[in-house]
Amino acid sequence: MDFARKGLAGASKAWNCPVFGSVVFFYREIPPRWPSGVYWNQGNKSVQSWKYKNNPVKTEAEFEITIREGAASVRIYDIN
User: How many CA atoms lie within 13 A of 6 on its CB side?
Assistant: First the structure.
């Protein structure tokens, strides 16, 4: 959550636009609630108090693609 809160939410707040990131996990499950897209809609609130429930970016679809290294998770987002 620190990456989403301090990195993505902070960048979205500063730039006033949706922000997306990616990450590579080796031999580890991807946390299901981990957002790779964040849009700041909390006004002047501190990013330190940001929670997943504050994120209006919702996963619309998700699927996995099998690759040589294992699997790639693909998430499609709706930012409305």
Answer: 3
pLDDT at 69 over 90: no
Determine the 3-state secondary structure of 36 from DSSP: coil
- ∠ CA 33-36-42, nearest 5°, is 85
CA separation, residue 35 to residues 17, 48, 68, 69 (Å)? 15, 16, 25, 22
Reported pTM = 0.74
Residue 5 half-sphere exposure, CB side, CA atoms within 13 Å?
Answer: 13
Contact (CB, 8 A) for 43 and 25: no
